[in-house]
Structure formats: C-alpha cells, structure tokens
Write a structure and sequence with these properties.
18 helices, Rossmann fold, TIM Barrel, binds alpha-D-galactopyranose, about 700 residues, Immunoglobulin-like, 27 strands, alpha/beta
Length: about 700
C-alpha cells in the first residue's frame, strides 16, 4: 500500500481501509454497537447502595436511554471477602435486573483494587516507588504489576467471574482492570527488579550487548552479570538514560502483561464476548500502540478541564488518537464527567451544552460509545464530589436533563455507527521517543511532548484538516503528509521508512530536536539530526535554546515581516535544502530557521525553532498546498468540524453563538438551526457550546 511500498501519490488519498481493525480479532467478538447503536451509559456502582436505589437507578437509566453500564470495577473486596470465598448474590441480582431492563453489562473483572486480605497476607505484592516508599492499601491500585501473587489472585477471580457470568444474558462486554498505570505506572520493588533483569536478558541476550546499549563505559556503570542490574531507583544524581528508557519500556510491557493474562482467561472461557479496558488519552507510561491491538474496541477516559479554553481542542486530539490506535475502527468514550471532576485543585462544572458538545465531538471523531464516570454520585469516599449522571441533587437537575436529552439524541444517530473518518494527514507518535525526550540533562529539559503536539494540533483543528496519529512503524503510505512535531528518538529502520515515504511522493514536516538519537538514546556519528540529515538536506551544528522570554524575529518567504521564534534555535547549515524563513534578529541572525527540500518525488520541511503560531500555520499551509490536502470546511476557527461518512459534525467551542456557511444541500440531523440565506447560501447557527450533526448527502464535502 501507498508510498512506502512504492505506490503512487494517488494511493495516499484515503485512509479508509475497509479491513481496518480486522487484525484485532474484533470480527470474532461482535460489539454491542452492532445491535444497540451508539453505546450510552456509565460506571454503575450498585454496591454502594441497596436494592431500593437499584430500582430507581434502572428506571432512570431507561428514561435516559442508557443501553450499557460498566459494573463492578471496584468490587473485588465484596465479591471475594476471603481467599476463594465468593459472594455473588448482589451481583447476580444486579445483572438480572439489567437483563430484564434490556441494558447491557460491560462487566468489570474487578481487579483494579485488591482486597485488604491479599496484601495483608502478601505485603510483597505492594508497589514500591523509585524513592523506595511502599504504597499501602486504603486507596486503590495498590499492586505491583509484576507481582505473581497479585496476578494469580486476579486470574483466579477473573476465572470465577467468567464461569459464573459467561452465559448471563446481560453480559455483552468485559472491562478488564481499570486505567492500567493510572496511579502506579511502574514499580521498583525487588520482584519487579528480577522481572526487569529477565526482560533485559531477553532483549539483549548477553550483558555485553546491554553494556553497549546503555553506554555503561560512562561513570563506571559497566555490568558483569544481569544479576547486578536494578531498576533506576533513586540515585545520587542523573540515572543512566537508557536504563530509564528500558525501564519505561519494561514497565509498559508489564502493565500490558497484566491485561493480557486476564484477557487470555476471558478468551478461553467466553470466546464470543468482546474484551476491552480503558485508556487514558495521551498517557505517557503506556505504549498504546502495543496495547491497542489486544482490545476489541479502543476505549478512552477523557476529562478535559471545563475551565480550559482549549478543552475541546485537547479532547479532539485524544479522540483522533483513539481512532488511530484502533487502526481507524470506531472507539468508545468509556468515561467522561457529566460535569465537574473532584481531583483538580478547583473543579469547574461543565457549562450548559458543553457535555453534549464534547460527546458529539467524540462521535464525530469516531466514537461509537459515549459513557460517563459515573452513573450515580457517591455519598461516601474520595470521589463523592465527582459529578454523575444522577447527581446528588437527583433526577430533577440540569445534569440529568442534559443526560436524558443526549441519550435521546444519540439514539437518532444510529446510522453513524461503524462509519469511518478519512484523513490524509497524520501526526507521528512514538512512545520510546516520548520516554527519551522527557528526561533530564537535555539542552532544554522543559520540553514536553504533549504541549508540542497540542501546539501543532491546534492549527489543524482550527483549519478543519482531519488528522490521524501513526506510529513510525505504522501504515505511513496511507497519508499524503506526515507531521513529526517532535521525534527525538528515531530507530534506524524508522528513519528509512520516513525517507522512503518522502522519496515516493510524501510530504514530511519535522519539528525541532528530532532525529537526534537512535533507539538506544545514543547520538549517532556526525552532525544532528542523523535520522533526517539527508532527507531534510541540512546539518545542525549546534542546539541553541533561547532564554525564557527571548523572542527573535524571522524573515523570508514564509514568515513575512511578522514571524518570530522563541524557546529554541539551532545552528543550521544547508546541504541541499532551501530557506523558507531566516532569523532577522538575535544571535543567529541571517541563519536558516525553516527549510524545505525536494527529495525523490516528495518534500521534506524542517522547522528548526520554536515557531510562533501564525508562521507554523503558514508552514502547514504550504505542506497542504504541495500535497493537495483540503480542509473539510470553510468555518470559523472556533468551530470544530469532523466528518464520518456523509455525516458532518460541527462543535462551537466558544460561549458566544456562531454561524457556519455550508456547501451543497445539507440536511440537519440534530442540533443547531439550518437556514437558507440570501444567494442560495445555507447557514448553520450554533448557540454557545452548541453542536450539530448535518447529513451532507453524497460524496461532496460541506
Ligand atoms: C477515572 C477512573 C474512575 C474515576 C474517574 C474520576 O476515569 O477510571 O474510576 O476515578 O477517573 O475522574
């Protein structure tokens, strides 16, 4: 397929491969969406109440058109009060009630919070921090991911659950664990240390290869046996960066291992029930490219801060990532807050409309499920001030009214289910690079990948250019343009894939401090950036971050007279590239800041500085122009636009009303007002935080 395999540029035009997701075995385990349409519901914790509240809960769920609830996430201690002793009666009753009401259960394996008896008998299963502190029970997730005691006890419970409920009519999906790595992303205990050594022996074969990869000639760190190696525990000063990197890889694999062990039990006992777990968006500790092929539907928990002006943009970016993790297949929003969360220092509520608009935005970016944490607000515990579909105020509340209205509206979007999103642009994302980038002792140790990605994503969102994420090892040939806002670490085979992508007609845009180190976090011979020197047609002699607040002016065909850079500069020498912007002031005056090079039949652009937003937009616009990328719509930047099949989604991210002019003869599916204006124009009016879904008809884009 596509450029990487030598196809023509025409191969790049669509990302809607028909067999997307098929590799995950999803076809064997049909998802509840097939019969229920868009999944709608939330985490239901009936164990916190008695049956009289369950009756009301079920009645209210039906009123809100809830069709799926996640049950039992934190119920291990109640389900198994003593080792091997089970107390099923309450869960039997809950699942029976759900089945009678026609509501599906996404039944949790309940392994996210082990019971007190387990850690009392086996304190060695408790996690230990880098500093050597033990994390005790009394909250949740107090387990070492590598602990055989934890894993065995968890699998015993999972097996008992699968045997008891595998044939229950309410069971339509398994929810394994909960938010793997959320609180304990890595454990530094002795058990983990032994597993880390085994992982390293498997990766390197012998200790000489490890010494080479870790560069242990530095600071007398050479190892003579794997037995000498420890996790990167608290040390007098900077730990070995490759040790830290490998420990991040190992820790991510261990969390995946916990999930896979449970999945295996479920697959063998209930082979037709789909299995998932909830991801946490752009979550650094877990490499979701490795994880996602093992879930039957990618599920995400999304909690943008309602007080953040970029809430919609950030949530959209994560939605695009979730779709991409599932290879373009529909995903589900497993958890979001109906209004406020409890865990920020000050927790803003979602203003009227925002919950609905964020939900429709998620659907527009590929979600076939919209669920919440949580169904009913808790009366006790650390999350009692977290919002819920049924808040403390009860059903006679704004929140429940909005919840009910959304349930009705999603029911009308059934035809959207299963449709895909087409993007000809993708952002490159690699977890190893992320782990290596955000380590100390760099020219600028304040660089954060999330912020960098957001600064490149925002102009895409505001100019309505649909975008996927892709791993450097992924299907690059689907795209016309690849963006690498930062790819600090690039393995040699990935560098080759990216060069081939350009050579065969693709456009690659690379951001600063990219291609600097190899997969072992070593700087290869020669000037920076070894991975991209040739394709970009330049050499970087020095990395030269600017002081805080220092801004330098740019000039040249792209920057005009207003462009500027801050934060980062590099001393760039051209080796075939042309200059698009140069420094007009500052220490590097006259030197290149932004470049472009034709390579094969493609184009490689380089941004060698911290560009101001308008100039970055100009760079991207140039990339679109050269590659024939067209935006989805001519809409104001405050409106988020996405498209699934013939359905277009418009989201007003602002508190003020807005108008969007639409092309063609669209019809309104839900939300907003569509009006024929003068000159045959069609205008969509959205209130503040409003959203609409429009049927654009045939192939024409709005
Ligand atoms: C996550 C967890 C939930 C709950 C919420 C609170 O989504 O999965 O159990 O703690 O956060 O926002």
């Amino acid at each position: 397929m596509g450029a990487a395999a030598g196809g023509s540029a025409g191969d790049r035009s669509s990302s809607a491969g028909s067999n997307r997701g098929a590799h995950r075995g999803a076809l064997d385990r049909s998802l509840p969406t097939a019969r229920r349409g868009i999944l709608y519901g939330g985490d239901w914790n009936p164990e916190q109440w008695g049956p009289e509240v369950w009756d009301e809960d079920i009645a209210l769920m039906r009123r809100a058109q809830v069709n799926l609830v996640t049950v039992g996430v934190f119920s291990w201690a109640l389900l198994e009060p003593a080792p091997g002793v089970h107390s099923w009666a309450w869960l039997d009753d809950v699942l029976d009630r759900l089945a009678r009401a026609g509501i599906a259960a996404d039944l949790a394996t309940a392994t996210a919070s082990p019971p007190a008896w387990l850690s009392r008998a086996h304190p060695e299963m408790l996690p230990v921090t880098r500093e050597g502190a033990t994390l005790w029970p009394g909250a949740r997730q107090h387990y070492c991911p590598s602990s055989p005691v934890y894993r065995e006890a968890a699998l015993t419970l999972v097996e008992a659950l699968a045997r008891r409920y595998g044939d229950h009519p309410a069971l339509e999906m398994w929810h394994v664990g909960n938010e793997y790595g959320c609180h304990v992303a890595a454990c530094y205990c002795d058990v983990s240390a032994a597993r880390f050594r085994a992982w390293l022996a498997d990766r390197y074969g012998d200790v000489a290869a490890l010494n080479q990869a870790w560069g242990t000639a530095f600071w007398s760190q050479a190892y003579h046996s794997f037995d000498e190696i420890l996790p990167p525990r608290l040390a007098p000063t900077l730990s070995n960066p490759t040790q830290v990197l490998d420990f991040a890889r190992f820790s991510s694999d261990e969390l995946l291992g916990c999930y896979l062990a449970e999945r295996q039990v479920l697959e063998s006992l209930t082979p037709t029930v789909p299995v998932t777990t909830n991801f946490m968006g752009l979550f650094r500790p877990v490499d979701y490219w490795r994880f996602a092929p093992h879930v039957d539907i990618v599920a995400d928990d999304s909690y943008p801060d309602p007080a953040d002006p970029l809430a919609y943009v950030r949530a959209a970016m994560v939605g695009d990532l979730m779709r991409s993790l599932g290879d373009g297949a529909p995903w589900m929003l497993m958890e979001q807050a109906p209004s406020a969360v409890n865990w920020r220092p000050r927790n803003a509520r979602k203003p009227p409309g925002m919950m609905r608009s964020l939900s429709l935005q998620a659907v527009g970016r590929g979600a076939d499920g919209i669920c919440f944490f949580q169904w009913r607000a808790a009366r006790a515990g650390a999350e009692k001030f977290h919002s819920a579909m049924v808040p403390h105020a009860g059903a006679a509340s704004r929140t429940f009214e909005e919840v009910t209205a959304l349930g009705e509206e999603l029911g009308r979007l059934r035809e959207v289910v299963g449709t895909s999103v087409d993007a000809s642009v993708a952002i490159l994302l690699d977890w190893s690079s992320w782990w290596a980038l955000e380590q100390p002792s760099h020219p600028d140790s304040t660089l954060e990948l999330r912020a960098i990605l957001e600064s490149w994503y925002e102009p895409l969102y505001r100019s309505h250019v649909p975008v996927d994420f892709v791993s450097p090892a992924g299907p690059l040939g689907r795209y016309r343009v690849l963006l690498a806002p930062n790819l600090y670490l690039v393995a040699a085979e990935h560098a080759k894939r990216l060069a081939d992508f350009v050579a065969t007609g693709g456009t690659l845009v690379v951001g600063p401090f990219s291609g600097i180190v190899d997969q072992d976090d070593h700087v290869p011979a020669g000037p920076y950036p070894a991975a991209f020197r040739e394709v970009l047609g330049l050499e970087v002699e020095e990395l030269a971050p600017l002081a805080d607040g220092e801004v330098v002016a740019l000039t040249g065909p792209l920057a005009g007279s207003a462009g500027s850079a801050s934060g980062w500069q590099e001393v760039i020498h051209l080796r075939g590239a042309e200059v698009l912007a140069r420094y007009a002031t500052g220490p590097l005056v006259g030197m290149p800041a932004v470049t472009t090079r034709s390579w094969g039949t493609g184009q490689a652009l380089y941004v060698g500085c911290g560009l101001d937003a308008p100039t970055l937009e100009a760079v991207l616009a140039r990339a679109w122009q050269g590659a024939g990328v067209r935006p989805l719509a001519e809409a104001p930047g405050s409106v988020g636009v996405s498209r699934r099949g013939r359905f277009c989604f418009y989201v007003n991210t602002d508190a003020a009303p807005v108008e969007v002019e639409l092309a063609g003869s669209p019809t309104l599916v839900t939300g907003g007002e569509l009006e024929e204006a003068a000159g045959g124009r069609v205008v969509l009016r959205l209130p503040g935080h409003g959203a609409a879904v429009v049927d654009a008809g045939g192939g024409e884009q709005s």
